[in-house]
Automatic annotation (TrEMBL):
Domain of life, source organism: Bacteria
Pfam families: VWA_2
Protein name: VWA domain-containing protein
Ranges for domain VWFA: 89-286
Species, as recorded: Microvirga makkahensis
């Protein structure tokens, strides 16, 4: 792998981009201010970049960046649509079906879902708008109560940059009926805006089961991701049987996102770490999964 150092100039503090030009490694880091009228690479720019990166590499630079060519540094304006985007809007979907009252490692799955939602919301960029939807928390978990659950899509809070308003609603969620997952994703899509950049908008679904009303969440997730909203659909599940895990994974794949099955406390904690890191990177124009950490 060959990494190329690119120094971007714009009105805000500078970043540099390490890019293998094949999309395998792509990371922005803070650097220093470079004049917007600079036309040619400067020796002090390259030297400063070398010094900055060098402080993070102690033993094996190749294991982290591969073969890095600082001599190829150049000055260029940052591209607005570079394949990654700042996270602007996020919607959390919480499964309110009766099975969420079940327990996993000593806690109800609904309690775990609330914690997962809090982690996600707390780690959002401060200026990102957020909303929440509970689905399936009407009727009951019997066949007789299923019909009422079908249309049970409840908005917890309107889209807002004030995340505390959304956090305050999480304890109101209940484990009651059946999960209309497809309808919940469709409702989330209606709350988003058209976007020209994949990654500006995220739908984060939390569930312990597959669609139960004959909807097609895979097709809807695909439309959400490939249509005008270009939103990413991520799913976290709790202790799922293989068939249902595969079903939810298909939804996330179609939505351009990731599926995680948190079946143990360790898996849950690891999933929450991924959520926090993904949102941190999204706030710095780095899509989840694009950068790999240096060895420690």
């Amino acid at each position: 792998m060959k990494a190329i150092l690119v120094v971007h100039h714009e009105v805000r503090p500078e970043t540099y981009l390490l890019d293998d030009r094949a999309g395998a490694v792509r990371s922005y880091f803070p650097l220093f201010q470079v004049g917007a009228d600079s036309a040619e690479p400067r020796r002090d720019t390259v030297a400063s970049a070398q010094a900055y990166v060098g402080q993070f590499i102690r033993d094996d630079a190749g294991a982290c960046f591969g073969e890095t060519h600082f001599s190829l540094a150049r000055i260029e304006g940052k591209q607005e649509d570079s394949g990654s985007a700042f996270l602007r809007r996020a919607i959390v979907l919480i499964d309110g079906s009766g099975s969420m009252a079940g327990r996993l490692n000593g806690r109800t799955k609904l309690d775990l879902a609330r914690q997962a939602a809090r982690t996600f919301i707390d780690s959002l960029p401060s200026d990102a708008e957020a909303s929440g939807i509970a689905f399936g928390q009407q009727g009951n978990n019997t066949r007789a109560g299923k019909e009422q659950s079908c249309s049970a899509i409840n908005t917890l809070a309107a889209m807002t940059p004030h995340h505390s308003a959304l956090l305050a609603t999480l304890d109101e969620t209940k484990a009651v009926g059946w999960p209309p997952l497809a309808a919940a994703i469709e409702q989330a899509q209606a709350m988003l805006q058209n976007s020209s950049s994949s990654g500006e908008q995220i739908i984060y679904g939390i569930s312990d089961g597959e669609e139960t009303f004959g909807g097609d969440p895979v097709e809807i997730a695909r439309r959400v991701n490939q249509g005008q909203t270009r939103a990413i659909v991520n799913i976290i599940g709790f202790g799922l049987p293989p068939k249902e895990a595969a079903s939810l994974k298909s939804v996330a794949n179609a939505g351009g996102g990731t599926f995680v099955d948190a079946h143990t406390n360790r898996a849950f904690n690891e999933a929450m770490g991924v959520v926090r890191e993904s949102n941190r990177r999204a706030g710095n124009a780095v899509r989840p999964g694009e950068a790999r950490p240096c060895p420690t």
